Recover the amino acids of this structure.
C-alpha cells in the first residue's frame, strides 16, 4: 500500500507479474492479451506467476473480446476455466455477465459467485459494469449476488477517467461499505493523485502499460510508467 491505498496491477504475462511484484503493490489481476482488453490467462502462466510472486493473484475469465452477453457454451467454458484457475492457485475470479438488455445477468452471476465462494475465493465483476446505464441498480444486483468487488472507471469514458469522477465518488460514498469499488481504467502518472483525491477510493487498479514490439505490437506493463505513477501518489 501507498498512503493506505490498495494497489492492483493488471498483468498480461509472467514477465509483467515479476515486474509488478518488485514494486510496493498489493494484488495482481492476471490476464492474457491486454491489447484485447484482457482475456483468460493460461494455467501455465498462473502456475508460474504463483511460483514467482507472493502477491494475491485474481484471474480474468473472459473467453473473447467485444461484449459480455455470452452464449451458453461460452458460459459453460467460463465456469470450467474458473474452477481450473482456482484449483491452480487463483485467489479470485474476475468476470462480467450482461443480459441482452445490457443489465447484470443475475442468474449467471449468482451461479459463478456461488462456485467462487465455495472455494473461499473472491468474486470480482469487471468493467462490463461500465456498459450498464443504471449503475445504482447494478450495484444493488451485484450486492444481492454476493459479488465482492466492482472494477469501474465510472462509465464508458476510457481513457478519460476524469469524466467518471462524479459517478465514482457517488458509488464509493453509497456502496463501498457493502461492496468494494475498485477504481481503474485510464490511471496515469498525470492524473493518479487527482483520482485518489476526487473519488475517495480505497483501492486503485492500473496497467501502467506500454506497447512492445516483436514482429508486431503487444501490450505489457512498463517499469518506467509504473514507477512514475506510484511516485505521484
Amino acid at each position: 500500500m501507498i498512503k493506505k491505498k490498495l494497489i492492483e496491477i493488471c498483468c498480461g504475462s509472467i514477465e509483467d507479474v515479476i515486474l509488478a511484484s518488485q514494486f510496493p503493490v498489493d494484488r495482481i489481476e492476471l490476464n492474457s492479451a491486454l491489447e484485447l482488453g484482457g482475456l483468460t490467462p493460461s494455467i501455465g502462466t498462473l502456475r508460474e506467476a504463483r511460483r514467482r510472486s507472493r502477491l494475491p493473484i485474481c484471474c480474468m475469465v473472459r473467453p473473447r473480446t467485444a461484449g459480455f452477453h455470452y452464449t451458453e457454451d461460452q458460459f459453460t467454458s467460463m465456469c470450467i476455466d474458473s474452477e481450473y484457475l482456482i484449483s491452480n492457485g487463483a485467489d479470485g475470479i474476475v468476470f462480467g455477465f450482461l443480459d441482452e438488455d445490457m443489465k447484470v445477468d443475475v442468474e449467471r452471476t449468482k451461479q459463478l459467485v456461488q462456485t467462487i465462494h465455495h472455494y473461499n475465493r473472491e468474486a470480482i465483476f469487471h468493467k462490463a459494469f461500465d456498459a450498464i446505464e443504471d449503475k445504482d441498480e447494478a450495484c444493488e444486483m451485484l450486492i444481492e449476488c454476493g459479488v465482492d468487488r466492482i472494477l469501474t472507471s465510472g462509465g464508458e469514458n476510457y481513457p478519460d477517467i476524469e469524466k467518471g469522477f462524479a459517478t465514482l465518488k457517488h458509488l464509493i460514498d453509497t456502496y463501498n461499505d457493502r461492496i468494494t469499488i475498485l477504481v481503474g481504467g485510464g490511471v496515469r502518472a498525470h492524473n493518479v493523485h487527482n483520482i485518489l483525491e476526487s473519488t475517495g477510493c480505497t483501492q486503485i487498479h492500473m496497467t501502467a502499460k506500454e506497447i512492445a514490439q516483436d514482429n508486431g505490437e503487444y501490450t505489457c506493463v512498463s517499469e518506467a510508467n509504473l514507477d512514475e505513477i506510484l511516485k505521484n501518489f
Summary: The two ends are 11 Å apart (CA to CA). The chain has a mean pLDDT of 97. Strands lie at 6-11, 27-30, 57-60, 92-95, 122-125, 149-152, 180-184, 203-206, 209-213, 217-221. DSSP finds eight helices and ten strands in the chain.
